[in-house]
Amino acid sequence: MKAEPAHQLRLLDLQETDTERDRLNRLLRALPEEEQLRQCEARLTELRDQLAVTETELRDLDREQRKVERDIDQVRARAERNTQRMESGQISSPRELESLQAEIELLARRQSELEDIALELMERREEADKRRADLDRKVTEAVEERDDAENRRSEAVLRIKDELDSATQRRSRIVKELPEDLLNLYERLREQYAGIGAAALRYGRCEGCKLQLSAAELREMRLAPPEEVTRCENCRRILVRVADSGL
Ligand SMILES: [Zn+2]
Description:
Helix Hairpins; 5 helices; coiled coil; C4-type zinc ribbon domain-containing protein; Zf-RING_7; Oxidative_Scav/Glycosyltrans; CT398_CC_hairpin
């Protein structure tokens, strides 16, 4: 294949632009900001789950507290009734008095037990309240962090898309300047060889595969007419002769 040396050189500009576009597209697919955002969201979900558990616990404790308070009231009322009956002097049967006395003692024990439970519930409630306040604060912080990460991600995407647009515009300008057969060969090689279809020969080395050319290969490159589209013997990419090729 033949192409003007200027077009061959221009092909290197096209390659540079395409390499840049590939890099930007890869970056878009694996943004570090995306990973940070994912981590922030995972943390927020975890905190909200913990908060939900704590709130359920608080509601359960509330219910238990109300129940214990009702029980205490009942026990107290019954004890008072019994005491009044005993003190009224209306009960004369010693057996009945004895059983009433026993019940009053039983109720007193029961009340003391219930009061212990109420105290313990109050302590647990205080702990859970503290935990909830702590989690509330952490959730607020995590929401801020998540929003920040989201902004950083959006900014990064915009910035990269901007750069991609410029590179794409640059590409279409270059493409218009190049002959079709050269372009087709380049595209085909680019597809075949990991995105690099054309490389410069610099200081005797192919910049596509990074290998040094042998003396015989360099000689062939030197002798080839300038308009001949030369290829690297090793990687088969278009190998463009430049000012510092070392020929
Ligand atoms: Zn090569």
